[in-house]
Write a structure and sequence with these properties.
single chain; mainly alpha
Amino acid sequence: MDKKLFSLICAISCSVIWGTSFVAQDMGMDFIGPFTFTSARMFLGFLTLIPFFFIFEFKKVKKTNLNLKIIMGYLLLLGLLLAGGNIFQQVSLLYTDVANSAIFTVLYVVIVPIIAYFLFSKNIHRSVWVAVFMCLVGGLLLSELDNLRMRYGDSLVIIGAFFWAFHIVYISKFLKIFDFPVTIATFQCLFGAIFCFMPASAFEYISLQALIMEGRELLYAGVLSSGIAFLLQVYGQQNLSPAPVAIIFSLEGVFGSIAAWFILDQYLNEFKILGIVIILSAVIFSQLAPMYDKRKYGRH
């Protein structure tokens, strides 16, 4: 199979799993707290991927001459960013709807080029600023301005979107020097689980019985969303350029909103649907406009 086609399939599959996992995340906090849920799901992701690591990449990784400190540094950073993004997203579900959490999460697609501009001195296309304004308008339509609780939840998701944006940026950078997707996906889950376990042990009561009671939700969010989906993400970023991959990943917002409507009966009124359409349009526009300029004018 063509490498780009394989990565495309991986990216689409990843967005479907991510989107539908919002429902499992929302339903998985009846007996455990958000920190415990996040730590447990990422540890399950690690357990899911560790056999693949030993089968496909362990021997290859042993033969690399890269500095172990650099590799560990990147893995710790990715684990921290993964933990941050997941925690803010999980806690937000205590205060806001699944649809809002799913849609505001995909703002990372607009944030990525802004990070590239301010931290890595890369040129930023003018379309990004238009997209940011569109996202603000869409966010106002999604947020119930008279509902302080929901506005607080939406704010948490937006903070988490910055963690996801940095996560995408540093995965791309790491792949350039360490092209082992299974290894990256496996150990970022392990370190993410450890980072989340710290606040879980400090602020929440952890019980094996409670974890078992949330078993179905944890298995879906852990094995599929934290394990398989993050592996699919790395494979998706391996052979595709950032623009089309970001567009595909942003579809998780659509899948999340639809899943919440059908499974959780979280009704989307006409204003929220319009807000979703505007934000997704902004995300797609921010990625397609630079590609159009390159083809038409040869700009970089």
